[in-house]
């Protein structure tokens, strides 16, 4: 992710530390459930939770040899807990860990987007109400048509963002599914109750029918929803950018004290906020 365009809280969700932390969270949740079921010693599960640590540098060194990221991860964590490391990753395939962790990251990222979307909708609503009687020209095909209000324009944005929000809520629910059914999804090593219990601890639902992976239509639904939302943001930003053109001049972005518009043309006030979006 490009740090210039990444909010810190979103960057943290997608950091390597966060990804590996989710992997470990899944492994420890499985150990806890297996201990509760009497399938591994309770003392071993406690030691794993107390002592398991992630060492990214050690993981990379192992991966250089084994050429497999999850094997390298499990091996590196096992080194931090001694003999109890043999109880890590019992009955799992790599996709159980990777896909379930990805679901957690996507769920958390969607929650951040929803919070940001709520702030955006509120800001747009404030402008719609403030400018409900502010006359501007309406355009079709870019040509003057009939008078409208700027509040009406903002209200149309607010309504579309509301539809985007409903789609994102549904997509977030659709992506929040985990899988611990093992290789090719057959539950050959664990009872489905184990998967349900681990997913419940993680705040996920259990994937009803999986293969080696969680079905990818769940991801497609979320990413399509994000593409539609991005299109809405582009529509708003492009309109705001157009309305700031010198020959239009109907709106203007804030311009902070000391802000510069150009290294060669100091009179300029470029629409940089809108351009960062579109």
Key structural traits:
two-stranded antiparallel ribbon; 2 domains; 278 residues; Fumarase C, Chain A, domain 2; mainly alpha; 10 helices; Fumarase C, Chain B, domain 1; elongated
Topology:
Layout (H helix, E strand, L loop, with lengths): L7 H6 L2 H21 L5 H10 L4 H11 L2 H10 L15 H37 L4 E6 L2 E7 H26 L1 E2 L13 H11 L2 E2 L10 H27 L28 H6 L1
Parallel strand pairs: 3-4
Antiparallel strand pairs: 1-2
Describe this structure in words.
- Helices cover 59% and strands 6% of the residues.
- It has 278 residues and is mostly helical.
- It folds into two domains: 1-90, Fumarase C, Chain B, domain 1; 91-253 and 267-278, Up-down Bundle (Fumarase C, Chain A, domain 2).
- A two-stranded antiparallel sheet has the order 1-2.
- A hairpin with a 2-residue loop joins strand 1 and strand 2.
- The longest helix is centred in the middle third of the chain and has 37 residues, at 94-130.
- The two termini are 18 Å apart.
- The mean pLDDT is 96.
- Rounded to the nearest angstrom, the radius of gyration is 25 Å
Per CATH, the superfamily of the largest domain is Fumarase/aspartase (Central domain)
CATH topology of the largest domain: Fumarase C, Chain A, domain 2
Structural class: mainly alpha
Tally of structural domains: 2
Q: Could you state the order of secondary-structure elements as H and E?
A: HHHHHHEEHEHEHH
First-last Cα distance: 18 Å
């Amino acid at each position: 992710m490009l740090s210039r365009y990444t909010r810190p809280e979103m960057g943290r969700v997608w950091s390597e530390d966060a990804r590996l932390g989710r992997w470990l969270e899944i492994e420890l949740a499985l150990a806890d459930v297996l201990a509760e079921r009497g399938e591994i010693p309770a003392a071993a599960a406690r030691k794993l939770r107390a002592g398991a640590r992630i060492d990214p540098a050690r993981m990379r060194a192992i991966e250089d040899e084994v050429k497999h990221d999850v094997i390298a991860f499990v091996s590196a964590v096992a080194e931090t807990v001694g003999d109890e490391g043999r109880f890590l990753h019992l009955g799992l395939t790599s996709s159980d860990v990777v896909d379930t962790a990805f679901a957690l990251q996507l769920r958390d990222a969607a929650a951040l987007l929803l919070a940001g979307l709520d702030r955006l909708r509120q800001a747009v609503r404030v402008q719609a109400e403030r400018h409900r009687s502010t006359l501007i020209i309406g355009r079709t095909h870019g040509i003057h048509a009939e008078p409208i209000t700027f509040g009406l324009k903002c209200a149309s944005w607010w309504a579309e963002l509301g539809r985007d929000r409903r789609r994102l809520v549904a997509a977030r629910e659709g992506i929040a599914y985990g899988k611990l059914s093992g290789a090719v999804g057959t539950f050959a090593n664990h009872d489905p109750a184990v998967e349900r219990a681990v997913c419940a601890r993680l705040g996920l639902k259990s994937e009803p029918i999986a293969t080696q992976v969680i079905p990818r239509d769940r991801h497609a639904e979320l990413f399509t929803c994000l593409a539609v939302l991005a299109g809405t943001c582009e529509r708003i930003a492009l309109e705001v950018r157009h309305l700031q053109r010198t020959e239009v001049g109907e709106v203007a972005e804030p311009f902070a004290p000391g802000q510069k518009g150009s290294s060669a043309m100091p009179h300029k006030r470029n629409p940089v906020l809108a351009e960062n979006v579109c």
